[in-house]
Amino acid sequence: MIAVRLPVLALVAALLAPDVAQAIVGGVPAAAEVAAQTVLIVSTRGASCTGAVLAPDLVLTAAHCVAPAADYAVAIVGNGPPKLVPATRIEVHPRFDAGQFQTRRPTPDLALVKLAEPLPGRFRTARLANADGLPEKGTAFLLAGYGVIADGQAKSAGTLRTVALPSIGTTGGIMVRLSAPEGAAGACTGDSGGPAFRDGAVAGVTGWATGPGGSRGCGGVTGVTLVSLHRDWIEATAKSLGSPLGSGR
């Protein structure tokens, strides 16, 4: 079991400050079913991300969230004082390239996080989407995340929210782009790694976001790595970590 250092506890305390009320640009509070499948990930780097529960002690998130050297943990929030469940092992997709954000050549931004102990009983395992191929334009996705409501508003993080967005296209054959035609909506800082649900199953993992018109920020376009294209790696890695899919509650 790895140690969870004080910076992680401080980050959790900040996320639970009294003025924390929202997350995700244009989002709404998450339904109980979504909340039971989604967790908040914190680290000694002072950063936070989101993840989906694949087994009682296994979380799927974005590789860029957990690739940097640090101690990571899932923060259990919402029922009394926060509890930290440390990560004991992290497996990043072997084809992930941290330089993709500079080269704009997408790679599988996926990672699995093995926890030191099972999550509390209020959590349940998410189902992975089986769909093959790339989604058509207009396909609806539901994003979930613990991030901020706008770029730079750190105190707005820490509450799970969701937003429904349609597909507007794909990139590199592995990623779908989502955007709301009616106005600003989508993922923001802290939502990375969060699940993108399609028909109740986790179809993708949030990787990046832009502001309107491709500007820096949030509320423009959200990029999501499709998990069905990498299901073989997810299943094999989960099994090697001792947490095979389908073993959860």
What does this structure look like?
The protein is of the alpha+beta class and 249 residues long. It has 2 domains: 6-19 and 34-125 and 230-240, Thrombin, subunit H, CATH 2.40.10.10; 140-228, Trypsin-like serine proteases (Thrombin, subunit H), CATH 2.40.10. It has 5 helices and 13 strands. Strands 8-9-10-13-12-11 form a 6-stranded antiparallel β-barrel. A 6-stranded antiparallel barrel has the order 2-3-4-7-6-5. It is globular, with a radius of gyration of 16 Å. It starts with 5 loop residues before the first helix and ends in a 9-residue tail after the last helix. Mean pLDDT is 86; it is low at 1-6 and 13-22.
What are the key terms here?
about 250 residues; alpha+beta; Thrombin, subunit H; 2 domains; 6-stranded antiparallel beta barrel; 6-stranded antiparallel barrel; 5 helices; 13 strands; disordered N terminus
Helix content: 10-25%
DSSP strand (E) fraction? 25-35%
* Sequence of strands across the biggest β-sheet: 8-9-10-13-12-11
Instruction: Assign an overall shape.
Output: globular
Structural class: alpha+beta
CATH class of the largest domain: Mainly Beta
